[in-house]
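Q: Start with the shorter request: fold the first protein.
A: Done. Sequence, then structure:
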Amino acid sequence: MPTSLMPRQPVPALSVPALAGGSLELHAGRAASFSLLVFYRGFHCPLCRAYLTELNRLHDEFVQRGVEVLVVSSDSEERARRARDEWSLDRLAIGYGLALDDARRWGLYVSTSRGLTSTGVEEPPLFSEPGIFLIRPDLTLYWGSVQTMPFARPHFKDLLGGIDFVLARNYPARGEA
């Protein structure tokens, strides 16, 4: 069973290899307002393709709000590279090789392969389901959403509107009680 993260509490450490080289990590104080951490299912998922394509399109709007955008999956380097290249994700910092134990520490669900997807791509034997988190510069959780299925994820345009509201009103994280 996944762990449940609590708002206003520290998030788990994150360090995975990055397609751009080196590692993709959360660092205290690097983001002006938030780090947006998006966990996706992997190259096999056609819904992830549409979701990340939208995030790539809106990337600069997040950056204008002081948001660092990080995208991670449990995919291999080869599959993550294919996702980046075939899905035209030229603006996103993409990490790969997320260990499933680390996925569970983030509260993500883990699924087993069901074979080929509707796009003809084989699912890995095990992979994490989607999750999206806004993390304060002090590395505490502000907001999070995890899913057991690939559909009905939060919309990035809605998230941008929420960030605008939060920043304008210094709105606190909720759900910590």
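Q: Next, the second protein, separately.
A: Sequence, then structure:
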Amino acid sequence: MSNPQFELKILDPRIHEWGLPTFQTDMAAGIDMFACLDEPLLLQPQADAVLIPTGVAILMNDPHVVAFLLARSGLGHKKGVILGQSVGTIDADYANQIFISTWLRTPPGSEPVVIHPGDRVAQLVFLPILRPSFNVVDDFSTTTSRGLGGFGSTGVTSS
């Protein structure tokens, strides 16, 4: 699989100081996104989600690619900082600034978390997209071992 090339527009000049969005290791799945804030942001537990600008726009312009904005694992696990909608979908034709919907999931009364300008607060992962067409049928052409078992039908314990 070849690596596609996308257009990156720098909307906040501090990105040049902090470093262009890049993969932090050779095998990293996502690129870290910076918090392009003018001042530190205090996230309160269970407060409304806050949109944090990333200072960049990316144009993929390929119908077979999507970018998903995800929480950074360490921030989510250690501090409770996650995305307000769990996953942010960046469509291939979206060409505006990317914003991070940020939320602090810790219980009320927990310590707030401070996000500083330049903090890496989310990651952007690029994935291939299938664009199927559908044949409308009355019955499926084959059966599966699960069949019509439905939601939760495989259980939770090992067999």
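Q: Describe the second briefly.
A: The two ends are 37 Å apart (CA to CA). The longest strand covers residues 120-128.
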